Amino acid sequence: MTVYRTRKGIPFFHDKTESEFQKDVYERYDEMVIRQSALHLADEFWYKYPFQSVIDFAEKHYPLERENNILELGCGVGRWIASLAQKYPKSNCWGIDYSYQMLKRAKEYWVDGKEITIDLSKRGLGVETVIGKKISNLNFGLAKAENLPFDDNSQDLILSSFLIDRLADPEKGLTEMFRVLNAGGKLIVVTPLNFDNAAHWKLYYPPSQIAILLEKIGFEILAWKEDIVVDEPLDGHGNNLHWNCLGFVVGKNRCM
Length: 256
Description:
alpha/beta, Rossmann fold, 7-stranded mixed beta sheet
């Protein structure tokens, strides 16, 4: 792994420039990090975990082995990969994201065990303080999904949610996931297919186009679900974003 620099304990596997920082909306601390922290770290606001349907789809496909290399791409503030690190304490778990601010919050909460105060008063939801954890088998790093800092055939389980429709090159990202996935391993993806690029709508929609691409890359489709619903809460009045998501699990043939 080439580490360009380290900031607050977060290794940079991509040499993110100042221009890239300025263009990345997820580097806007107040707007994005507080919201993502509320959604994924403070269930007290919602009396449930808003993204539980993602976990419900994925968990039946987790490995039986207790020691694995597990990787989440687009990990945000780290809820999903942290749950795997706790479930498989003998495994080596990495959360990768392109946003330093998200990774900083993830490390503060899940690795450093810091106490975090989340203020959603302006959304009518008040203030909550959450106590972090100290998970020893969990690491976070900054990288692009299209250029991963991992060896070929090195990951037993790869996770990704709400990411591939935001990649500059989804096919390159999925091909890179195939490269680092171990033979016999699984890739689990949940995506709302909310592309912001007209060309991507033509290339990757309807979902059957994604299936064709996966098979072209070399994946074997193991599970496919087009009606995963995520209702992402917005405020204390109960307004929310309703996401209709595609979920799929694919494998890499052991003979490859």
